């Protein structure tokens, strides 16, 4: 895009009823939290009170979250770029909040790591090949392609990896697991509060993904098959990573002398499968997402 042909807000106005404008409004209203205001002092005491085995058991999930939030922050820009080239003003308005949300998510996890004393610990050892395939390769590949190619295929692929797999399947399952373990144990109130905020933000991000994929499918039904194919292509890596976390956790539990945390790893596996199938179901050959009610109804289905 070297030149602009004209400007929407000069010829007319923003489309106030546009689903992405409504989502932008929601983001401004609900996304006001500040990671710097979260009190991690109890988290610090809690972490210090854990046995070394229990401490280690928290690290793989943290390693997954931190890198995941950093990756999605670094990789969202090409989506804004592609939609700007297409003149999708309301989508771009929403994406300005999206990137800010992700920046806060990165900050929140990094502050927590710092607060509990693991800020300088390299956790990349917990990224197995499946994790790397998704976060180190598939995500940036699909997103960066958008700089040169904003075809329906390229946009669907990017939104599938980013919104439906990374956010809608992996991140959502990660938050769920984290809550299951640490809420039950009465630990890490600061981080749990942060994750509640994150979850709200992610809800909007997934709505963006559903909207973006569905509007393309509505224009041409053949793209539905493409979406399903991309989801299935990534699935072995999703479950491969989850199985690795499960194995790691079970081994740690067996080796530990003292271990008070209650972790049901099978529950995590079932949750991931459920999330993956839900994301698939949220796109259909005919769903209406051109009005915000339709989009919200679709996103709320579970
Ligand atoms: Fe995030
Ligand atoms: Fe997100």
Automatic annotation (TrEMBL):
Fe(2+) 3 binds at residues 129-130. Fe(2+) 1 binds at residues 69, 102, 105, 202. InterPro entries: Ferritin-like_SF, R2LOX, RNR-like, RNR_small_fam. Its cofactor is Fe cation; Mn(2+). Mn(2+) 1 binds at residues 69, 102, 105, 167, 202. GO terms for biological process: deoxyribonucleotide biosynthetic process. Fe(3+) 3 binds at residues 102, 167, 202, 205. Fe(2+) 4 binds at residue 130. Fe(3+) 4 binds at residue 130. Keywords: Iron, Manganese, Metal-binding, Oxidoreductase. Mn(2+) 2 binds at residues 102, 167, 202, 205. Fe(2+) 2 binds at residues 102, 167, 202, 205. Fe(3+) 1 binds at residues 69, 102, 105, 202. Mn(2+) 3 binds at residue 130. Fe(3+) 2 binds at residues 102, 162, 202, 205. One of its GO terms (molecular function) is metal ion binding. Belongs to the ribonucleoside diphosphate reductase small chain family. R2-like ligand binding oxidase subfamily. This is R2-like ligand binding oxidase. The lineage of its organism: Bacteria, Bacillati, Bacillota, Bacilli, Bacillales.
